[in-house]
Amino acid sequence: MYESSVTFTLDTICPWTYLAKKRLDEALRQVRSTNASTKVNFTINFMPFQLYPDASQEGENKYEWYKKSKYGDSEEKMKMYITLMSAYGESAGINYRFGGTVANTLHAHRVIQKFQVEKGAEVANQLVMSLYRQYFEEEKHPSSEETLLKACSDAGIDHSEAKSFIGDESEGLMEVKMLIREQANNGIDSVPHVIFEGKRRDVTLQGAKEVEEYVKALNQIVKESN
Question: Who's near 139: CB < 8 A, 6+ residues apart?
Answer without folding.
Answer: 62, 97, 99, 100
